[in-house]
C-alpha cells in the first residue's frame, strides 16, 4: 500500500490512523507474546458512522479487516497474520456509555468501553453488571461479546451471551444495523445478535450493546477452602448449591501447583494456611437481602463441609480487603503462568460430574508420557470449565518442551474431552490457536452451517480472515 492509499483512508473518517511502526506495534502482538502479525495500519474510529466508513473503504479495496478491543484474548483472534495487507480496527476510541436505564435494568455502552468502567457505571447507578474476569481492567465490551467471555460468575449470571439484550453492528459491507433493543421478549424472527456474539469478529464489527443489569447484592461472602482432590471439590459444590442455591455466585478450583506458582511470582499472594494443600476452592456467595443472612448461611455451609470431612481447612474473608486478597491469588494465575513461560493452554468444558475422573485420568496419562510435566489445572468448576494447562518439567525450556511434545499432549487432552462430549473451547474462543482442532472435532454438518453463515454475511471473506473458520490467511500456531 502506498502513502496515497493511506492518505485516502485517512480522509474517509475523523478518528485516528496509526501507521508508524512504533505506534502500531502494541496492536500487532498479543499480551502473552504468542503471536505477532503485520498490518497496513491501525484505524481508531470515534463513532459508529466512522467505523462504517472504514469498513466500506476496506470492502471497496478488498482489504482484510481485523477488529481489536483490549487485546487481552487468549487465542490470537485480534492479531493479524504476517501478510501485512490487513487493517486493524481498534475500538479504543469508541468508548462512551450511551445510556443507563435503572428501571429497565439496562446499560448501553459502545464496544470500546473497558469492562471495569461499565461495572463501575452500573454500580454508580445502584446496579450490578455481573461479568467479571481477570482482564476486566483492560478488556472491552466488544471483545467480551465477540468472544462470548465467561469469567467467574457464569454459574449465577451466565456468559456474556446471556447478558446482552441488543447490539449495534457494522456489517461487512459497511451498513449499520441498529439492534439496540432493551427487550426481554422479542420473538420477531431469527435472533440476529446471537450470530455476532461469539463470532470473534468474523461476521461484522460490534459497535455498541445494550446489556442487562441486576440488583446489587447486599452482602458478599468469600472463602478459600482446602480440599484433598477434585472429587472433594465436587462434593463441596453440591453442598454449596444445596445450601446457598442461587446466592452461590462463584466456585473456582485451583490445584496446589497453581497456587504455589502464583506465590512464586507474586510473593504477597499466598494461601492463608499453615501448610500447603493439594487442591483449593475459592467460593463466593452474594446475598441480595442481608449481610446477617449471608454470614449465617455461609458459616453453616462451611461447618457442614468440615463435619462431613469434605474440607481440610478454610479461610473465610472477614472484610472486603480479605476477600480481595483471596481473589488476588486466583486473578494472578494467568500472569503467573505467562511469567513462567508460554505453556500449553487447554480451555475446555466437560460435564461437571465428569471433572474428577477427567483430571485424574488425563493428568496420569500426561505425566506417564512426559515425566516431570506440570499440569496446571484450575478454572470455573461451577460451570464445568477447566483451564487445563501443561508446563515443562523444571529445568526444561518451555518452548523446546512445547515443540517436542505439545501436539501429542493436546491431542491426548482433546481426545479425553471429546470422549465425554465436552468442548475444546469453553470461553476463550477459537481465534487462530484452535482453527484446525475445531474443524476436526465439530460435526461436518455444524461446520458446513457455520461456513454458509460466513459466506452469506461476508462473501469476500474480509472480516478477520482465517480466525475461527479455516481461511486463506490461517496459519497454525
Ligand atoms: P480482544 O482480545 O481485542 O479480541 C478478542 C476477539 O474479539 C478477537 O477475535 C477480535 O477480533 C474480536 N473483537 C474485539 N472487539 C470486537 C468488536 N468490537 N467487534 C467484533 N469483533 C471484536 N476470558 C474469559 O472468557 N474468561 C476469563 O475468566 C478470562 N480471564 C482472563 C484473565 C486474564 C488475566 C486475561 C489477560 C484474559 C482473560 N480472558 C478471559 C480472555 C480475554 O480477556 C477475554 O476473551 C476478553 O473478552 C477479550 O476482550 P478484548 O477486548 O481484550 O478482546
Ligand atoms: C482465567 O480464568 O483466569 C483465564 O480464563 C484462564 C487462563 O489463564 O487460561
Ligand atoms: Zn477462565
From TrEMBL:
UniProt domain FAD-binding PCMH-type: residue ranges: 35-216
Keyword check for Manganese: no
Listed Pfam families: FAD-oxidase_C, FAD_binding_4
Keywords: FAD, Flavoprotein
InterPro entries listed in its UniProt record: FAD-bd_oxidored_4_C (IPR004113), FAD-bd_PCMH (IPR016166), FAD-bd_PCMH-like_sf (IPR036318), FAD-bd_PCMH_sub1 (IPR016167), FAD-bd_PCMH_sub2 (IPR016169), FAD-linked_Oxase-like_C (IPR016164), FAD-oxidored/transferase_4 (IPR051264), Oxid_FAD_bind_N (IPR006094)
Flavoprotein recorded as keyword: yes
Membrane-spanning segments: none
Family recorded in the similarity comment: Belongs to the FAD-binding oxidoreductase/transferase type 4 family.
Record-given protein name: FAD-binding oxidoreductase
Organism encoding this protein: Cupriavidus basilensis
Amino acid at each position: 500500500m502506498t502513502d496515497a492509499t493511506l492518505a485516502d483512508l485517512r480522509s474517509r473518517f475523523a478518528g485516528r490512523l496509526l501507521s508508524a511502526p512504533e505506534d502500531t506495534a502494541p496492536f500487532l502482538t498479543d499480551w502473552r507474546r504468542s503471536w505477532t502479525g503485520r498490518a497496513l495500519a491501525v484505524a481508531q474510529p470515534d463513532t459508529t458512522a466512522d467505523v462504517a466508513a472504514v469498513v466500506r473503504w476496506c470492502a471497496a479495496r478488498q482489504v482484510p479487516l481485523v477488529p481489536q478491543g483490549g487485546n487481552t484474548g487468549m487465542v490470537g483472534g485480534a492479531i493479524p497474520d504476517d501478510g501485512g495487507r490487513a487493517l486493524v480496527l481498534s475500538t479504543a476510541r469508541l468508548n462512551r456509555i450511551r445510556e443507563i436505564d435503572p428501571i429497565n435494568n439496562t446499560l448501553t455502552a459502545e464496544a470500546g468501553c473497558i469492562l471495569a468502567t461499565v461495572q463501575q457505571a452500573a454500580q454508580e447507578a445502584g446496579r450490578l453488571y455481573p461479568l467479571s474476569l481477570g482482564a476486566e481492567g483492560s478488556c472491552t465490551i466488544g471483545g467480551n461479546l465477540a468472544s462470548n467471555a465467561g469469567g467467574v460468575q457464569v454459574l449465577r449470571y451466565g456468559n456474556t451471551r446471556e447478558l446482552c439484550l441488543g447490539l449495534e453492528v457494522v456489517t461487512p459491507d459497511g451498513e449499520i444495523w441498529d439492534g439496540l433493543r432493551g427487550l426481554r421478549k422479542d420473538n420477531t424472527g431469527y435472533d440476529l445478535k446471537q450470530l455476532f456474539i461469539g463470532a470473534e469478529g468474523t461476521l461484522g464489527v460490534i459497535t455498541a450493546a445494550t446489556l442487562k443489569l441486576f440488583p446489587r447484592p447486599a452482602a458478599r461472602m468469600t472463602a478459600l477452602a482446602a480440599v484433598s482432590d477434585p472429587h472433594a471439590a465436587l462434593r463441596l459444590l453440591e453442598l454449596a448449591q444445596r445450601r446457598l442455591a442461587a446466592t452461590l455466585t462463584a466456585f473456582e478450583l485451583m490445584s496446589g501447583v497453581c497456587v504455589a506458582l502464583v506465590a512464586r511470582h507474586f510473593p504477597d499472594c499466598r494461601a492463608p494456611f499453615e501448610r500447603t494443600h493439594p487442591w483449593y476452592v475459592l467460593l463466593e456467595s452474594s446475598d441480595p437481602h442481608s449481610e446477617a443472612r449471608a454470614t449465617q448461611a455461609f458459616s453453616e455451609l462451611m461447618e457442614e463441609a468440615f463435619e462431613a470431612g469434605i474440607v481440610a481447612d478454610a479461610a473465610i474473608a472477614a472484610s472486603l480487603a480479605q476477600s480481595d486478597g483471596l481473589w488476588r491469588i486466583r486473578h494472578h494465575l494467568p500472569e503467573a503462568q505467562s511469567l513462567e513461560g508460554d505453556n500449553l493452554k487447554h480451555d475446555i468444558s466437560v460435564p461437571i460430574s465428569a471433572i474428577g475422573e477427567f483430571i485424574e485420568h488425563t493428568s496420569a496419562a500426561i505425566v506417564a508420557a512426559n515425566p516431570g510435566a506440570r499440569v496446571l489445572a484450575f478454572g470455573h468448576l461451577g460451570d464445568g470449565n477447566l483451564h487445563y494447562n501443561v508446563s515443562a518439567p523444571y529445568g526444561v525450556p518451555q518452548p523446546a518442551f512445547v515443540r517436542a511434545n505439545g501436539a501429542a499432549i493436546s491431542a491426548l487432552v482433546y481426545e479425553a474431552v471429546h470422549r465425554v462430549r465436552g468442548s475444546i473451547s469453553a470461553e476463550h474462543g477459537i481465534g487462530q490457536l484452535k482453527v484446525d482442532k475445531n474443524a476436526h472435532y465439530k460435526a461436518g454438518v455444524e461446520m458446513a452451517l457455520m461456513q454458509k453463515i460466513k459466506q452469506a454475511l461476508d462473501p469476500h471473506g474480509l472480516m478477520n480472515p482465517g480466525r475461527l473458520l479455516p481461511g486463506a490467511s490461517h496459519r497454525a500456531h
